[in-house]
Design brief:
Layout: E1 4-8, H1 13-27, E2 34-38, E3 55-57, H2 73-92, E4 96-99, H3 101-109, E5 113-115, E6 120-129, H4 131-135, E7 145-152, E8 155-158, E9 164-168, E10 176-179, E11 183-186, H5 194-203, H6 215-222, H7 231-241
Parallel strand pairs: 1-2, 1-3, 3-4, 4-11
Antiparallel strand pairs: 5-8, 6-7, 6-9, 9-10, 10-11
Helix pairs in contact: 1-5, 5-6
Length: 243
């Protein structure tokens, strides 16, 4: 099988390593099967899509809807590089799974409105599949409703006009969509379990997602939820596109 490629952009080493380990664990992969590029560290090298089974974009502290003057030089570079890569990915209908940051990147690239209207606090939420989601192969074996972890300042207010809506929550109407046949984006985290969320709460307590003094309370609340169904998305992605 050709390896999959994880494009990451978390500057904090602890968060970056925890995310990578989660994708390995829940994707059923080893390090030779999931290569990683940390985009925040250096310019993206030339990529030959034919060298990989598919591309995954992980979560990010970058907020695509921020005004340009508030974005760092690294964020501007990452956004330019992802946009250029998505030009090729979309044209080829190449296997792509964007988790959390994927909504902002694939969504904006395809004409969605991304803003802060439907941000959600860190924690467990109930995700509901649409009729199309219930029929989508990437969501095979999943119930109509399930618990997933989320935490995002921005979300998709208006999806791309040609996107297929696959999942929603009560507070966020666009939690997952598909472009063409093989391009997917989720707002929730398919790789994240309760302990992983606790780790991120600790790391990002001063990043503006929540009042720093509420971190311990959020950690305790996270441990009251169990999220096992979202990981099926990763396993299905590997099963469908691994070649």
């Amino acid at each position: 099988m050709k390896p999959f490629l994880l494009l990451a952009s978390r500057a904090e080493d602890a968060a970056a390593e925890d995310e990578y380990e989660a994708y390995l664990r829940y994707g059923g992969l080893d390090e030779s099967q999931l290569r990683r590029i940390r985009m925040e560290q250096a310019p993206l090298p030339d990529l030959a899509l034919e060298d990989y089974s598919g591309i995954i974009v992980g979560g990010s502290p970058f907020t695509s809807s921020d005004p340009p003057e508030k974005k760092s030089e690294a964020q501007h570079r990452v956004e330019r590089e992802l946009s250029a890569l998505l030009d090729r990915i979309v044209a080829a209908d190449y296997p792509f799974l964007g988790a959390c940051y994927g909504v902002g990147t694939l969504g904006r690239h395809q004409g969605a409105v991304i803003d802060r209207t439907y941000g959600e606090q860190l924690g467990g939420v109930t995700i509901s599949l649409s009729p199309e989601g219930l029929q989508d192969p990437l969501l095979a074996g999943m119930p109509a409703e399930f618990t997933a972890f989320t935490g995002h300042k921005e979300a998709c207010t208006v999806p791309p006009p040609h996107a297929v809506l696959l999942a929603s929550s009560a507070a966020c109407p666009v939690h997952m969509f598909r472009i063409k046949q093989n391009l997917y984006a989720t707002q929730f985290h398919p790789e994240l379990d309760a302990e992983g969320l606790v780790t991120r709460i600790d790391i990002y307590r001063h990043a503006g997602y929540f009042p720093p003094e509420s971190a311990e309370e959020l950690m305790a609340a996270a441990r009251t939820f169990t999220a096992t169904e979202p990981m099926k998305i990763l396993r299905n992605f590997i099963k469908i596109y691994g070649r």
